[in-house]
Amino acid sequence: MGRRLIERRLRDVGARLRTLRASLAVAEEQLEHLAAEAEDKGLKALVSETPGADLEYREARRHADAMVRHRDAVKASISELEARQDQLLDQLGS
Fold it and tell me: Which regions of 1-40 does DSSP assign to beta strands (E)?
């Protein structure tokens, strides 16, 4: 593979990494909020013992769980891109 092609791919990977890292920061911030909200609604459901409060808690928990899955997927994508970046750097150094 030519040096220019490797450098272009490195730039592309670097740009995607920056985007994913920004997305990860947002996801972690949202997860913090959603987890706190789910915890609050869980306590409310425990105290009030009403079906409506329990439903609100389960919905909030589902949202928090979905954000955990999203955050984990973003982290996995970052790891894959970092591995690709390492490969490209090795090729560039050869």
Answer: none
Dmax over Cα atoms in the chain, in whole Å? 67
How far apart CA 36 and CA 67 sit, in angstroms, is 13
Residue pLDDT tens, the chain, 94 long? 789 999 999 999 999 999 999 999 999 999 999 999 999 999 999 899 888 999 999 999 999 999 999 999 999 999 999 999 999 999 988 8
Yes or no: say if 6 and 91 are a contact pair by the CB < 8 Å rule. yes
Give this prediction's pTM. 0.87
* Eight-class DSSP state of 3: H
Domain boundaries, the chain: 3-92
CA distance 43 to 83: 42
Cα–Cα distances in Å, from 91 out to 3, 15, 18, 29, 78? Answer: 9, 19, 22, 36, 20
